[in-house]
Structures are given as structure tokens and as C-alpha cells.
# Entry
Amino acid sequence: MRSLFFLILSLLIAQCAHAARPLVTDDARLTNAHGCQLESWMRSYQGGQELWALPACNLGENFEITLGGGSYRNNDDNYHTEDWVAQFKTLFKPLETNGWGIGFAAGRVMHPDIQPGPNQLGNTYFYIPVSFSLRDDDVIVHVNVGMLRDRQEDRNKVNMGVGSEFKLGGNFKGVAEVFGDHTQNPFYQMGLRYSLVPEVFQIDGTVGQQVNGDSRTQWLSIGVRWTP
# Structure
């Protein structure tokens, strides 16, 4: 029943999405003041599929809260699991054209079980997003450094990410990133973002894999984002 809920929510937001989707590496930007946005995406692996929905609202001028979750189903044994995410984010310096920005985000994941590597999930986590605007926003680079608590392994992990978004022409943008934690090989992905309604509604797709990983670490993601 809950899987059906996520599927319906994903279809709904495809009609009506978070800051740097489809990047895992976050940016030093927030949802519009007193406004909300909605993201949803599906990530398909060799053995199963994830479906995520993450709505976020800026409750004031500089305090964004994200509440959402994801569902995963294994193709082989029909194994099914769900994760729930609660996060807040604020900025110390907003990103400006040809400038830079920096912020802070922290959150908690309830039952972190859905591909924790590619999703950079831990029971409790925090990170510092830093973004740089180049060539009048033609290229924007994001850097994240943080830490997550892995309760199952009973240890802390340092996680990092470097991502970029760059204009390709028209309403198309390219995205590319490398991210991971210090306990394993990093992950990478690249893809395209297309704005059906510039700055309001976009669709995107990426392909990714773990560095030196086998075919089981490969994925294809398709997502939408609505920013009213």
C-alpha cells in the first residue's frame, strides 16, 4: 500500500520538484522564501528499483525543512523496504552569480536501508554545502563535506562530494559528480536536465556507478522537480 502511495506521489509531481536534482551533492541554495518545492525520482539497478519523494519548504527567509521518503523493491525475492528522511538546511552566505555561497544541513534517516552508498545515507548526518558560480552561472560547482553515523556498523563516516551543473544550450543543462565516504570506493554519475518551464519545472536523467564496481552498482535514474 505504501509503495502505491510513493508511485502516485511521483506521478502527481510529474504534473506539477529540490535544488540541485539530480545531483546527490547539495548546493548552497534554498527553496524560495515562504515557498515549497517537490522532487521525485526513480533509480533502477540490476536487482531492483528505488522510488523517492522529497518535498521541502522554506519556513522563513533562511530555514528549509525537508520531509520525505523512499521505497525499494528487489526484483529477485520481492524484498521490500522503506526509508524516511527529515532534514533542515540554512545558509551562512547565499550563492550569487559569479560568487560563492555556503550553508549547513543536518538530518536523520529512519531505517536507512536503501542503497546507503549511492544515497549517502546514515542514521544521523550533517554536511556543509559550498557552491561556486562561474561565467555568469554557465557553470556552477558544488562541494560537500560532512559526516554520517552508521548505526549498523557502529561507526562514523566522513562523506564528500563534488558536483557541477553546466549550460549546454537552450533549456538543457549537463550534470556530473563524484561522491562517497572514506570507507569505500566513491560513486559517480552524469546526465542531463531539461527545463520544461525554466526555473519552475524540470525533468532529468542520469547514469551512475561505483568506481571499480561491478554491474550491480550501476544505476539509471529519472526524476522531476517542481519549484513554484
Notes: The longest strand covers residues 155-169. The chain has a mean pLDDT of 87. DSSP finds two helices and twelve strands in the chain. The helical segments are 2-13, 116-119.
